[in-house]
Each structure stands twice: as structure tokens, then as C-alpha cells.
């Protein structure tokens, strides 16, 4: 029996559990966070895209192992986007900004893990599967300002180098690709 349905179920359960309300969680002043169904809907949508993509690719057993690695990397990014730290409101402005920088570093690292897993998966696909992947795979990657960011809060703690000294380094520099604002983090 294929492990893909179990992997999808596990990913869904983890993502939904990460979005479940926790007693005492609220906005900076202790009030309930603003309403809106974004989190659950984004997870549901992403889960559906992952399932449809896996079905469309018609993966072989060796490719399925690469797919599971890819799904795990996507799940790690979703978990990072949903990490909530209640102490953020008690931090001063400099600490809050540092936390946002750490969150972006962590998410960049997670996106690079997704890129690595996707590259290995893509290399193992045949020509027909690659056409399907070209049409569907990129849509399974959560963005920094959508697909999961609706219930996301910044996390801190990453120790990834910033890359600002490398040619074209830094997220706002040439080749950085961010183009300005992420929306609220």
C-alpha cells in the first residue's frame, strides 16, 4: 500500500493542529485575534493542491519517496508560519524587528529546503511528469504573504547567515527577488 495517503493525512493533521486556537492566545493587548477564516482555508487549499499534484504526477515508488521529502519540507514551512509566540507583545520595538528578521531568515531557509527537495523530485520525473510538475508544483509552495500567512505570526531563533556580503546578496538587492513589502508579518 502506498504511503502517500498517510503522508497527506499526517501533513493535514499537523497543519490543522498548528492553526487550532490555544487558550490565552490573543492580540498584543490580550484581545482575541482578528477574525477571518484564512488559516484553515489556506491549509485546506494547499492540502488539496498537494493531493492533486501527487495524483497528476502518477509517481512511481522511488519517486514517491522524493515526493514525501518534498511534502515534509512544505509542512515545515507551514509549521514555521504558524508558530505563535505570545511574548512578542512584551518585547520592545528593536526586539520585535529582530524577531521579524529571524522569521524571514527561517522562512528563507525553509523555502530553500523546499527548492532542494523539488529539484531532486523534478530530476527524477519523466518528460510527461515534468509537464504536469511545470503546471502544478509551484502552486504547492506556500508564499510568505499568503497560503498560511493568514494565521501566521513571526517566529524567531534562526541562525542562518544573511548573505548580505555576497554578490547580489540581501533580499532587497539585485537578484534578491523580494521587490518590497510582504504585507503584515
From TrEMBL:
One Pfam family, short name: LTXXQ
PROSITE patterns, alphabetized: PROKAR_LIPOPROTEIN
Record's compositionally biased regions (Gly residues): 166-185
Keywords of the record: Signal
Spans annotated as Disordered: 151-185
GO cellular component, one term: periplasmic space
Keyword set includes Signal: yes
Domain of life: Bacteria
Leader peptide range in chain numbering: 1-17
TM stretches of this protein: none
Name this polypeptide is given: LTXXQ motif family protein
Organism expressing this protein natively: Azonexus fungiphilus
Organism placement in taxonomy: Bacteria, Pseudomonadati, Pseudomonadota, Betaproteobacteria, Rhodocyclales
